[in-house]
From TrEMBL, chain A:
<dbReference type="InterPro" id="IPR027387">
    <property type="entry name" value="Cytb/b6-like_sf"/>
</dbReference>
<dbReference type="Pfam" id="PF13631">
    <property type="entry name" value="Cytochrom_B_N_2"/>
</dbReference>
<dbReference type="GO" id="GO:0016491">
    <property type="term" value="F:oxidoreductase activity"/>
</dbReference>
<dbReference type="GO" id="GO:0005886">
    <property type="term" value="C:plasma membrane"/>
</dbReference>
<keyword id="KW-0812">Transmembrane</keyword>
<dbReference type="GO" id="GO:0046872">
    <property type="term" value="F:metal ion binding"/>
</dbReference>
<dbReference type="GO" id="GO:0008121">
    <property type="term" value="F:quinol-cytochrome-c reductase activity"/>
</dbReference>
<keyword id="KW-0349">Heme</keyword>
<keyword id="KW-0249">Electron transport</keyword>
Automatic annotation (TrEMBL), chain B:
<keyword id="KW-1003">Cell membrane</keyword>
<keyword id="KW-0408">Iron</keyword>
<protein>
    <recommendedName>
        <fullName>Cytochrome bc1 complex Rieske iron-sulfur subunit</fullName>
    </recommendedName>
</protein>
<keyword id="KW-0813">Transport</keyword>
<feature type="transmembrane region" description="Helical">
    <location>
        <begin position="58"/>
        <end position="79"/>
    </location>
</feature>
<dbReference type="Pfam" id="PF00355">
    <property type="entry name" value="Rieske"/>
</dbReference>
<dbReference type="GO" id="GO:0004497">
    <property type="term" value="F:monooxygenase activity"/>
</dbReference>
<dbReference type="GO" id="GO:0051537">
    <property type="term" value="F:2 iron, 2 sulfur cluster binding"/>
</dbReference>
<keyword id="KW-0479">Metal-binding</keyword>
């Protein structure tokens, strides 16, 4: 038996000390040289993670000075002058005091607010990346759910934090929430009492939101982040398609040292940029708004960006005729539709998408190589359509600013946006799907005929042709190495003995949905097709660019791909 | 069965990861995987001078970070905020710029180091099927079954199982009931239906609390109105909660401009063109604060619900469904404006029991 080697360096000794007590060596074996693929878009999730770290750090600073109390006090401080002698909550006073009297306090407040905006923003962009590249497919459906849950928590964190200073703006924000909560049938009034500990605004809401904001929500977020990262490491990261990248391997750089350095560097850059924003860009100057008072409100007020879509939906919904009285009870559809149904649909779609897509694709395999968005036209088009709907709603939340900045009628803007909310997503879906199919056909054309070289050759018989340079095998691989699923096929209604089959109707419905997804598709070029194209070139038939078999919607010349 | 779940990955597995695709298995309808592209060296790999330069850059960036930290502390000590907004801004800016430099220095240095000096050779690692394979799987299934059997509840002892799950499902109630019982205060939701306006309550200016004489209200003027009450009461939470329901917007129109108000037959809720409407929007409850004198329109700045004051505050545009409730007013013996009664209907946004 070989004698175990004794460490000689200081690092070695420390590692040995730890290993003898924790067997950490096994973990290091697993992780130190673990390979991670490289792509800029894999950084979006990191931005979310690191803004969260900045939020925790700056938030800790703020809790040292914030007083989560609605006790009414008089402002005794000297600055700002406008606040002198005003009656306000202790929460508002401590917010003003930490801005004016604590050195670096305003800096931390502004960093915290900007970090919150970037946090939610990077989560959304990260989700777009996951969605458009199909990274949510098996085995990552669970991690998608964890991520979607974290988006909900991030919104809750943002809104609860926004309300804490107890200024006029956030108080009116809470009042809108109260109005929405009250509109919920049956339990709305009681929910409102539950949230506010009585009637709005009462004297409990700030301490309650504080507990949620600094304990419950961040605690849940930390637990879910841990789960999110654990699953990511366990399942290994996805990779973009390319030479040598398969569903059975991962191509990239080792965690130690490259990713440790890049991730640490990235953290400091994100923290640095957020600090720069906090230092130079004023945000939420609550002393200009004043303490919460139920009477005043300022025009041109917008919520933080991630709430804009709900606020915009509230503005777009026409009121008259949408409040129904049923058996003496009041049902406010003009609130329920924009504030409950619209976000409800959005989040249901988010949570259900991986499972719906797997079902209509008939796909049970593991996927580790990402899709190019063009290769899944309907998924990509749905994503863009949802994004357009989101943007129209967000734009609607700024309709008063649009009206004053461009001297337009607010009624006209609202009407245009109402129409756009219906037409925009449909149009976006159609255009995006066509663009995807067009790009796929362009890929086919490139593979079959190569790049235009710009070199024109004249033959002895007078014919002119442009010389095309064939794709190198790496570029070709990128354009042919995708799957183009066909719509589901189901067994007929009756079996061979003419007996009706149970479950046929449900299968039929899924098949219809599957057709919606995959009826229009473009197959990747096969070697045989390339061969044929070359042969055609050799015979001088240059003009023929697209084979009829590649046409959209007409079915394919090959039997559907066999899928497990 | 788990080995066979994914024919596609099996197929691609036949293609070995290699720069040369020559020995790969070629399917008739599939192109061969060309393998990982050839590695290209960076300038710093081939030119020692470039590597030296990159090293100096990284060092310089770390030094900049140190300077940033020092600068931030210097700013903290030397430029204290003097209390004015400008002073606070200056202190914030200087401390922040120092801190940003200190963080960005480390960040940019780390990335530059990784990109220019650390190894950039690509590695290929195999993935393993996530599902547990072979013997480990068998053992896991056996252990699970044995464990369940040892517990002695498989298929037997239905009552015990029922009691077990019943107890687990019920015990949270012992915490939830006291919590929910108290978390909503007195749970008296009928409070939504009343405000502190009563017969004879004087209309007072918000926020001074001074009562208003009808004679002082000129045509076209707008008043933000609250019920008159004591100074002490106006420094309590109850006041803020009551005020949230009781705020009123009062306007004096030319009596001939006032087409209709909400007074029922035989009553007069306005006084010589002076009308008072709840300021709480019937949409989601924002204070309706923007009055346009020319059109007599009242606009909610939150969601742009628009009400026509000259025409019983009915909705002319936007997401609100109902008109603003009118406060019936008159004048008392001393000429002060007073309420005839509370609002005739609940103010603010709709709720389930509104009409009950």
């Amino acid at each position: 038996m070989a004698q175990q080697q004794r460490p000689t360096t200081r690092v070695g000794k420390a590692a040995d000390y730890l290993d003898q007590r924790t067997s950490i060596g096994a973990l290091v074996n697993q992780l130190a040289r673990k390979v991670f693929p490289d792509h800029w878009s894999f950084m979006l999730g990191e931005i979310a993670l690191f803004s969260f770290v900045v939020l925790i750090a700056s938030g800790f600073f703020l809790t040292m000075f914030f007083e989560p109390s609605m006790a009414l006090v008089r402002f005794e401080g000297e600055h700002p002058a406008a606040m002198q002698g005003q009656l306000m909550s202790a929460a508002f006073r401590s917010t003003v005091e930490m801005s004016f009297e604590v050195r670096g306090g305003l800096l931390m407040r502004q960093i915290h607010h900007w970090a919150a905006l970037i946090f939610v923003g990077s989560i959304v962009l990260h989700m777009f990346r996951i969605f458009f590249t199909g990274a949510f497919r098996k085995p990552r459906e669970v991690n998608w759910l964890v991520g979607a849950l974290m988006l909900v928590l991030a919104l809750a964190a943002g809104f609860s934090g926004y309300s804490l200073p107890d200024d006029v703006l956030s108080g009116n924000g809470l009042r809108i929430i109260d109005g929405v909560v009250k509109s919920i049938p049956l339990i709305g009034s009681y929910l409102s009492f539950l949230v506010f500990g009585g009637e709005f605004p009462g004297e409990h809401i700030i301490p309650r939101l504080f507990t949620l904001h600094i304990f419950v929500i961040p605690g849940l977020l930390i637990a879910l982040i841990a789960l999110h990262l654990f699953l990511m490491v366990l399942q290994k990261h996805t990779q973009y398609p390319g030479g040598g990248r398969t569903d059975r391997n991962v191509v990239g750089y080792p965690a130690l040292p490259v990713y440790v350095a890049k991730m640490t560097g990235n953290f400091f850059i994100i923290a640095g940029v957020l600090t720069l924003m906090g230092a130079t860009m004023a945000i939420n100057n609550v002393w200009n708004y004043g303490p919460y008072d139920p009477s005043p409100v300022s025009a041109g007020t917008q919520p933080d960006w991630y709430i804009l879509f709900v606020d915009g939906a509230l503005r777009l919904m026409p009121g008259p005729g949408w409040e129904w009285v049923i058996g003496g009870y009041t049902l406010s559809m003009n609130l329920l539709i924009p504030a409950v149904v619209v976000p409800g649909i959005l989040f249901t779609l988010l949570f259900a998408w991986p499972f719906v897509e797997a079902r209509v694709t008939g796909d049970r395999g593991e996927h580790h190589v990402l899709d190019r968005p063009r290769n899944r036209p309907v998924r990509t088009a749905m994503g863009v359509a949802l994004f357009v709907a989101f943007m129209v709603c967000a734009l609607a939340a700024t309709n008063d600013l649009i009206a004053t900045h461009f001297s337009l009628s607010i009624f006209a803007i609202t009407w245009v946006l109402r129409v756009l909310l219906i037409v925009g997503p449909v149009l976006a879906f159609w255009v995006t799907k066509r663009v995807c199919l067009g790009l796929q056909r362009k890929d086919r054309e490139l593979v079959l005929h190569g790049h235009e070289s710009g070199r024109i050759v004249r033959f002895a018989n007078g014919e002119y042709v442009e010389v095309h340079t064939p794709l190198d095998e790496q570029e070709r691989w990128l354009r042919v190495s995708y799957e183009s699923p066909a719509p589901l096929e189901i067994a007929p209604l009756t079996d061979s003995r003419g007996v009706r089959r149970a479950g046929y109707r449900s299968e039929r419905r899924w098949q219809r949905l599957s057709r919606f997804f995959y009826e229009d598709r473009v197959e990747p070029v096969t070697p045989a097709e390339l061969e044929a194209a070359h042969a055609a070139h050799a015979h001088g038939r240059h003009a023929q660019v697209e084979r009829p078999a590649a046409a959209v919607g007409a079915g394919t010349e090959r039997p559907p791909q066999e899928r497990a | 069965m788990s080995e066979n779940q994914n024919p596609r990955t099996d197929a691609s597995n036949e293609v070995t990861v290699a720069p040369e695709a020559g020995n790969a298995v070629v399917h008739a309808d599939r192109f061969p995987d060309p393998g990982v592209p050839e590695h290209k060296h960076r300038l710093t790999d081939t030119d020692p001078k470039a590597a030296k330069r990159a090293e100096r850059t990284v060092t310089l960036l770390f030094v900049l970070s140190i300077l940033g930290t020092v600068g931030s502390i210097v700013a903290y000590v030397l430029v204290p905020p003097d209390g004015t907004t400008a002073g606070v801004r200056l202190s914030t800016l200087l401390i922040g710029l120092g801190l940003a430099l200190s963080l960005l220095g480390i960040g940019v240095a780390g990335i530059h180091w990784a990109k220019t000096l650390m190894g950039d050779r690509e590695f290929v690692q195999e993935r393993h099927t996530l599902a547990t394979q072979g013997e480990a799987r068998e053992t896991a299934i056996r252990d699970m079954n044995e464990g369940l059997e040892d517990s002695g509840v498989i298929g037997r002892r239905g009552v015990l199982k029922g009691a077990f799950f019943g107890a687990l499902a019920l015990f949270p109630l012992a915490i939830a009931v006291p919590l929910i019982g108290s978390v909503g205060g007195d749970w008296n939701i009928s409070k939504f239906k009343h405000t502190m306006w009563q017969r004879g309550t004087r209309l007072a200016i918000d926020p001074s609390g001074r009562p208003i004489k009808a004679a002082d209200v000129t045509v076209g003027s707008v008043f933000h109105v609250v019920p008159e009450t004591t100074e002490e009461f106006r420094e309590t939470h109850e006041w803020i909660t009551e005020k949230s329901k009781a705020v009123v917007l009062m306007v004096r129109l030319n009596p001939e401009d006032l087409r209709t108000d909400q007074s029922p037959e035989g009553e007069t809720w306005s006084h010589e063109g002076i009308v008072a409407y709840s300021k709480i929007c019937t949409h989601v409850g924002c204070p309706v604060a923007l009055y346009e004198q020319q059109t007599h329109h009242l606009l909610c700045p939150c969601h742009q619900s628009t009400f026509d004051i000259a025409d019983s505050a009915k909705v002319v545009f936007g997401p609100a469904n109902r008109r603003l409730p009118q406060l019936p007013i008159t004048v008392d013996d001393e000429g002060y404006l007073v309420a005839q009664d509370d609002f005739a209907e609940p103010i603010g946004p709709s709720f389930w029991e509104r009409l009950k």
